Amino acid sequence: MTSNIKGLIGLVKDYQLTGGKSKQSYPCLNILRKINTNTCQLIQNNQTRWNSLFSAISRSLNCRERITKFCQEYIPGSGVKALGKDDLLSTRHWQELEHLHDHLEAFYEATIMVEGKYTGLADHFQTLDWLLLELEKTQQKFTELAA
After folding, report:
1. Residue 136, Cβ neighbours under 10 Å: how many?
2. Radius of gyration over alpha carbons of the chain, in Å?
3. What is the pTM for the complete model shown?
4. 60, 71 in Cβ contact below 8 A?
5. For residues 16 and 44, is the Cβ–Cβ distance under 8 A?
6. Which of 79, 96, 100 is nearest to 30 (CA)?
7. Do the beta carbons of residue 134 and residue 105 sit within 8 Å?
């Protein structure tokens, strides 16, 4: 499961970092770029802030129906490779992204709780204790999912 998650994250990051203009050819990424997202644009990942990946996964999950529908109805133009089975996110992939999102949310909340000029060292230690508990829960959850 770890390699699948790395692959999913890589696919999302590759699309977001390159705007769909990847050195590798992922037809699904080019499709995502063409999706009409007037009210809910896809979020681009930022390498300097880890929580941008959380935001990108959140938005992708919010746009899941539109992404899936577009991929199902996609008709490639001439000279364009058709979508293969490996280019599409399966139900299992979406479930893995949902689990990853749920567990990254704790880190997002922790970041929000300690940012700003009115937090002290005690706030950071308390947040770190809470995050360690969340990590233990996450490890147990992913161990169960892998079984």
Report:
1. 10
2. 18
3. 0.61
4. no
5. yes
6. 79
7. no
Of residues 115 and 49, which shows the higher confidence score? 115
Nearest of 42, 54, 46, 138 to residue 104 by alpha carbon: 54
CA distance 124 to 130: 10
Q: Which residues pair with 49 in a beta bridge?
A: 46
Q: CB of 107 within 8 A of CB of 51?
A: yes
Residue 49: phi and psi, rounded to 5, are: -130, 110
pLDDT value, residue 54? 87
pLDDT of residue 130: 92
Mean pLDDT for 33-44 is 54
Partners of 90 in the β-ladder: none
Q: For residue 48, is pLDDT > 70? A: no
C-alpha 118/C-alpha 101 separation (Å) is 28
Average pLDDT, the chain: 75
C-beta of residue 131 within 8 angstroms of C-beta of residue 139: no
What backbone phi and psi angles, to 5 degrees, belong to 146? -75, -20
Could you tell me the two tokens for 124? 């950071």
